[in-house]
Automatic annotation (TrEMBL):
Residues 291-427 form the 5'-Nucleotidase C-terminal domain. Residues 8-205 form the Calcineurin-like phosphoesterase domain. One of its GO terms (molecular function) is hydrolase activity. PANTHER family: 5'-NUCLEOTIDASE (PTHR11575:SF24), 5'-NUCLEOTIDASE-RELATED (PTHR11575). InterPro entries: 5'-Nucleotdase_C, 5'-Nucleotdase_C_sf, 5_nucleotidase/apyrase, Calcineurin-like_PHP, Metallo-depent_PP-like, Pesterase_YunD. It comes from Ornithinibacillus xuwenensis. Keywords: Hydrolase, Nucleotide-binding, Signal. The keyword Signal applies. This is Bifunctional UDP-sugar hydrolase/5'-nucleotidase. Belongs to the 5'-nucleotidase family.
């Protein structure tokens, strides 16, 4: 006798709620189909379901994301970095208090050794025909952030050594829910022969029919839930082994919507708007932003962050601010709309030579016009870099391109081998946008405040009249 076992999964929704009614409809349809034929089926999410770029996630600090997962009937979820490092310790500790699913994450620990009741390192489940399945969850180890928030994420390979060894004694199939990214998933498959399936996310890769590495099938469904993933495992009860592993992704962009979920989201948006409607200040003159110049508000924000951190100088890109502020009341919702990115300031150490290279790079058209996607940035283009604590002297090429002539700190030229503490957006500590920043051996993230929290304070200090409760 052969038994088919099904997993349906989502990953990296990033609060793209416009797609969620289709997700709900599709999952409910396939669950009904599998239940009708008495086939084992589970629904899982691989993390980054929440993204504080969306007003609903911002207003409710992710708890309504959990409610939406409950309503669709998810069985298991693991944490992404957007759940893990964009919330204060207490907010994450209580995020899943009302979850009706199991949260599985083996490498997340609290530095005070007090763990939330909802956290499971691994779980075991059983199919209709008695096949034992072990599930391990893993999240990306952004420990520079986690440790400042009172958490610690251990090495996923060390954790896997422990739990795979344990589960192989009592299970027939081992499944990893991995918010680590495609390269790490491939390495896990190479290192651990006993892993049957890795359902992945984090790097937003789309594997339409899976990928087999060392007899492990790896799968992931891109981002924003335009696709839903399906894993089909065929167990031969006579041979007592897994005979076939299949993985597919289904494009649901044209799928019908669950009207009740769509209506719920409309109601949640209204409630979120009401929560975020709290006034911060009232301004007598409108405030304009400009991605290509040193706008006054951007200069004030850069100066304010420098004054409130232990850095020597500051640099923030103008593209962080997405909208103007018209005359009248400014609410938290307005600030969130203007600066929606889940980005923190970060202090890095650069030599004078490195800092000069960084500054020169930021004046290039390639940097200013870069349409960045990811690394926390939710804007259009990076825009011009705005500096504080530094005097940057520039000139123009015949073609109109601005370039750097000299940079002064404390009225003196940058010293090539002197180390400077520079506060900037944490976006630049990842990837290759500004390599010198990303490679800095010293990084001190300013948590849990986002840049928009500093923006609210900047507005209160420099503009209009602060609203009194």
């Amino acid at each position: 006798m052969k038994e088919k076992i099904y997993f349906y999964y989502t990953n990296d929704l990033h609060s793209n709620f416009s797609q969620w009614p289709r997700v709900a409809k599709y999952i409910n349809d396939v669950k009904e189909k599998r239940n009708t034929t008495n086939e084992s089926c589970w629904v899982v999410d691989i993390g980054d379901h929440m993204d504080r770029v969306h007003p609903i996630s911002e207003a409710f600090m992710g708890k309504e994301n959990v409610a939406l997962l409950n309503e669709v009937g998810y069985d298991f979820v693991t944490l992404g970095n957007n759940e893990g490092i964009t919330l204060a310790h207490d907010d994450l500790f209580h995020l899943y208090d009302k979850a009706e699913f199991q949260v599985v994450c083996a490498n997340l620990h609290s530095k005070d050794d007090i763990l939330p009741d909802w956290l499971n390192p691994r779980v075991q489940i059983k199919s209709f025909q008695g096949i034992n399945i072990g599930i391990i969850g893993l999240t990306a180890p952004f420990n520079d952030y986690y440790e400042l928030l009172g958490w610690e994420v251990s090495d996923p390979y060390v954790v896997l050594e422990k739990y795979i060894s344990e589960l192989k004694k009592s299970t027939d199939i081992i499944v990893i829910l991995s918010h680590l990214g495609i390269s790490e998933d491939q390495e896990i498959a190479r290192r651990f022969d006993d892993v049957d399936v890795i359902i992945g996310g984090h790097t937003h890769h789309l594997l339409r029919t899976g990928e087999e590495v060392n007899q492990t099938i790896i799968t992931a469904a891109g981002k924003h839930c335009y696709h839903i993933g399906e894993v089909i495992l065929t167990w031969d009860h006579e041979e007592k082994k897994l005979m076939k592993k299949e993985a597919y992704t289904i494009d649901i962009t044209e799928y019908a919507e669950d009207t009740q979920i769509a209506e719920k989201l409309v109601a949640l948006q209204t409630e979120a708007d009401q929560i975020l409607a709290k006034r911060v200040i009232t301004i007598d003159e409108s405030i304009s932003i400009d991605w290509y110049t040193n706008s006054t508000i951007m200069q004030h924000l850069t100066d304010y962050i420098l004054a409130n951190t232990a850095a020597d100088c500051a640099m923030f890109n103008a593209g962080l601010l997405l909208d103007n502020f018209p005359t009248g009341d400014i609410t938290y919702g307005d600030i969130h709309r203007a600066c929606p990115h889940p980005i923190n300031p970060c202090i890095v150490e650069l030599t004078g030579a490195e800092l000069m290279e960084v500054i020169r790079a930021t004046y290039t058209k390639e940097f200013i016009d870069l349409e960045l996607k990811g690394f926390g940035f939710r804007g259009k283009i990076l825009g011009k870099m705005v500096f504080s604590g530094l005097d940057v002297i520039t000139d123009y090429h015949p073609n109109g391109q601005e370039y750097v002539l000299h940079v002064y700190f404390d009225d003196k030229p940058l010293v090539v081998d002197q180390v400077y503490k520079v506060v900037t957006a944490d976006t630049f500590t990842f990837g290759r946008i500004l390599p010198e920043v990303a490679k800095s051996t010293y990084k001190s993230y300013v948590l849990p405040k986002f840049i928009r929290d500093f923006l609210a304070e900047t507005l209160q200090v420099h503009y209009g009249k602060r609203f009194q409760q």
